[in-house]
Amino acid sequence: MSQELDDDSDRFEYHLECGRDQPTGANPRAGILLIGGAEEGRLGEDAATQWFLKRVDRGHYLVLRSGRSGGQASWLCEQYRELIASAAELSIDSRGAANNPEVIRYIRNADALFIAGGDQDAYENYWEGSAIEEAINDLINQKKVPVAGTSAGMAILGDYYYAPAHAGILSSEILNDPFHHNTKDIYRSDFIKVPILKHVITDTHLDRLNDDHTETRHGRLFGFLARIMHDTNKAFPVYGIGLEEGAFVAINERGIAKVFGNGSSQGQDAYFLQTLGHAPEQIQPGLPLIWNWNGQAVKVYKISGTPEGSGHFDLTNWSQATGGEWEYWFTTGGAAGFQRKPMK
């Protein structure tokens, strides 16, 4: 079953890949699965997917995206049919569609929600302030279904989120000028509301390096924390969760996270960042960021994911952790001074 509407004022696609489009009677369990992007075929993907699907209680799995439907739902039907009643893709590509009653019905019928990768700016433009936003938040906070997000889908699950209208900011750009013009697209507390991610900003693809991506994003996430600390005048602690490609962070209903990945010492790592109440020593437009505090500006717990899931990080207190290692991140001056050092 599929449906497409091409009117620009009410543009969406719905494709039911398997099963039937009706309430299932499932009793899903809450949970959040954060995915760092580029996860297809990675070690850890199967175990993370099964962790998520077991919380669905053989219910209806809905993939939400913009920019036309993809292959996530059909992959679920092929690989995990016994764990779901049905799977469908819904692409919302206009503000009109984001308030369409039929679209909202599709979302409210879901027993699990997977927010696909793509363009978080499109998600913010089309969905924020719409009936879709209300329906998603009801799924999370009232129906308490499991929710997953990869890449752009993970980015918008944070209380703070970065949705650039143009090219995303580089680590060097925000570290050398924390008020770079691309930082205007950091938003907070006005979109998806996941209680365990309150005061958290997320970032993905931290380790991606290729001809089009010449810098890693570890420094970028650090820079986001500095700007948020400044903009909120240290009103409360600020946290960050950053994932390398192919890393999966599974957060259960008690707020305990574990990490799936490739089990190696390089790549597919998860980072849990927390500010310690010390504002940057220098944060001004046009000047490099200085956030040092004797090499202890931001406290970070790093967990290297394994195929079966590893580590234990308590997001209710950000202090109880096992299976990883503590680090400090800081900069003595801009990108050139940015460092990550193990805690001694």
From TrEMBL:
Please list the coiled coil stretches: none
Recorded GO terms, molecular function? serine-type peptidase activity
Alphabetical UniProt keywords: Hydrolase, Protease, Serine protease
- PANTHER family linked to this entry: CYANOPHYCINASE
The family database entries (Pfam families) matched by this protein are listed as: Peptidase_S51
Superkingdom of the source species: Bacteria
Q: Does the keyword rRNA-binding apply?
A: no
What GO biological process term is on the record, naming one? proteolysis
- Which CDD domains does UniProt cross-reference here? GAT1_cyanophycinase (cd03145)
Q: What is the lineage of its organism?
A: Bacteria, Bacillati, Cyanobacteriota, Cyanophyceae, Oscillatoriophycideae
Q: Which family does it belong to?
A: Belongs to the peptidase S51 family.
Task: Note the InterPro entries from the entry.
Answer: Class_I_gatase-like, Peptidase_S51
**Keyword set includes 4Fe-4S:** no
Protein name from the UniProt record? Peptidase S51
